[in-house]
Amino acid sequence: MSAPFGERLDDAVASRGALCVGIDPHAALLEKWGLPDGPDGLARFTDAVVDALAGSVAVLKPQLAFYERHGSRGLAVLEEGVARARAAGALVLLDAKRGDIGSTMDAYADYLRPGHPLAVDAMTVSPFLGPGSLQPAVDTARAHGGGLFVLARTSNPDAGTLQHALVGERSVAQVVVDTVRGWNTPGWGVGDPLPDVADRAGRPTGSFGVVVGATLPHLDVDLDGLGGPVLAPGLGAQGGSVADLRRLFGSGRAVLPTVSRDVLSAGPDAAGLRAAAERWTTELGARPWR
Ligand SMILES: O=c1ccn([C@@H]2O[C@H](COP(=O)(O)O)[C@@H](O)[C@H]2O)c(=O)[nH]1
């Protein structure tokens, strides 16, 4: 079994910096790169991003939707790109946003099994069916050293409509964060009292993280004691900046900023892609990982 995802993420960030670059081959980007909007264009786009960045960026995050829209040939492109990215040393976080009843969730979690044709290091999941429905994915992640990022406070403008709704005294987003905090605590089960925040001191980053947008006007969930990483999308094209990360998350939290279009629009030239990613890494570099 691989080392736990959280530990592998700590190592990747220590050697490469805390940046995740999203691979989002939008039709408009393919056109901008002079590529056809089909599997061949998709393959050339993916190859270019992987070749330019997989040797230097800590995490690559392919967006599954942009591969699924090309059918089985699109998925074949993704499988090859993911394998090459991992071989070059990048961790791969599949942005799949899956969530279903437990028995089906178990099948989605197969992306975290090493023998899967699209085996990845971590994936995004949606808690809409209840955090407990994600338990099979937690079990698979634990068994194979994989990671999960659960949608908690997403970066889209109307996300609060559901995520601020109250469940008892806590918001839906807070229930998600607290559940993930429990997953990062060995032996904790849904319904058990929350672990003591102080219990985290000195431990490596946990393998279970949350998604919290860099676009929020203010941080309206309590991330103390989460124990795992925070994936922060919304930078660049959605308006978020490094200053927003500082404002929202301060320092001392394992925040993994993720950028897609702002880096990808610097392609197809490899030097352009690298320079765009390096600009973000440098700007983010001043922020301690934990
Ligand atoms: O709250 C969320 C969760 C996921 N995303 C995904 O991240 C990228 C963002 O792309 P940009 O081009 O950097 O805006 C995209 O794949 C989203 O599906 C998010 O934006 N917000």
Automatic annotation (TrEMBL):
InterPro entries: Aldolase_TIM, OMPdecase_AS, OMPdecase_type-2, OMPdeCOase_dom, RibuloseP-bd_barrel
SMART domains, per database record: OMPdecase (SM00934)
EC assignment: 4.1.1.23
PROSITE patterns named among the record's database cross-references: OMPDECASE (PS00156)
Gene Ontology molecular function, alphabetical: orotidine-5'-phosphate decarboxylase activity
Sequence ranges assigned to domain Orotidine 5'-phosphate decarboxylase in this UniProt record: 18-276
Pathway stated in the Swiss-Prot or TrEMBL entry: Pyrimidine metabolism; UMP biosynthesis via de novo pathway; UMP from orotate: step 2/2
Keyword Lyase: yes
Catalytic activity: orotidine 5'-phosphate + H(+) = UMP + CO2
Pfam families: OMPdecase
Residues annotated as the enzyme's active site: K97
Key word Lyase present: yes
Keyword line: Decarboxylase, Lyase, Pyrimidine biosynthesis
UniProt-listed NCBIfam families: pyrF_sub2
Family that this chain belongs to: Belongs to the OMP decarboxylase family. Type 2 subfamily.
Protein name, entry field: Orotidine 5'-phosphate decarboxylase
Species whose genome carries this gene: Blastococcus deserti
Gene giving rise to this polypeptide: pyrF
